[in-house]
Amino acid sequence: xxTHHACLSRRRFLIAGAAAxxxxxxxxxxxxxxxxxxxxxxxxxxSCALDGMLLADYPGPKVQMHYAGVERPxxxxxxxxxxxxxxxxxxxxxxxALYVQDMAKADWNAPQxxxxxxxxxxYVFGSKRLGAMGPTAAxxxxxxxxxxxxxxxxxxxxxxxxxxxxxxxxDGGALHxxxx
Length: 180
Fold this sequence. Notes:
Layout: H1 4-26, E1 63-67, E2 74-76, H2 79-86, E3 95-101, E4 115-117, E5 122-125, E6 130-131, E7 134-135, E8 138-140, H3 143-153, E9 156-159
């Protein structure tokens, strides 16, 4: 037989467990594997959150940034724009998922699909390949593909956490190319 105190403690434990389960279930909509928001595909109307450019009209890797409580992602027509926004100290919204395209698999001139987690990707900065905004950082799922791309097109291979805000300045000359 339980005492009044023991019954209350058990009841509180059960209620807390049920509440935690309900809260976890509330966030399960549009989720991919691993409990993250699944990537969605670019369509003809997908436009860049910064400048309104239609993503399908331009070459190079694209980005989708998903925020907590927002159904549709912010699209970016260039990885440099992603880094500029994400690394900005004023960026306060909770990013629930961040995807770039694996350019070892996607067609550079008309990339579709092949979405990978941006935070685990490898990036080639300083290559001769141009994206929507000029010089860009090509994104890859694995290091070997990034190194092969850099050997062919030039550039330096970096991990997501190695990219610094000063490497993603959008002053009309991405990657210090002031000739744009």
